[in-house]
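Async update (no meeting this week)

Hi team, since we skipped the sync, here's where things stand on the single-chain job. The sequence we agreed to prioritize is pasted below, unchanged from the tracker. I ran it this morning and attached the output directly underneath so nobody has to dig for it. Comments welcome in thread, and please keep replies under the output.
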Amino acid sequence: MYNTPLLEFLNIGGSEMILIVIAILLLFGGKKLPELAKGLGKGIREFKDASEGVKREIHRNINSFDTDEEDRKADENRKYREPEVDNSHSIHDEPTAAAENQNEAQPVDTKEEEKEPKSSV
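Output:
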């Protein structure tokens, strides 16, 4: 990811690093150095885990916001594309009184048609 050494921001060269290591050995001794390195490694690992957790949470929130926005737009588009269907009437409904009246046979009045004279123009 980065091509620069880890401590380049401190502007420390090789000879300064060796001097620091010798100073640490003199201050803490050889017996405490493994415990110190272990504690330092554990602290760095916890810091990395915490920063990765924050990154994951940020990405999760961004992605959920994007998917919520896409779902809302899809719902709006679906409203405009699909016509509203009235499902209150079904082909299996009972016939109503009006429908029954329409189905009854009605007599045809042929006398009125015969009374009117047909004009031929």
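Quick observations from my side:
Residues 31-67 form one domain.
The chain has a mean pLDDT of 74.
Reply here if anything looks off.
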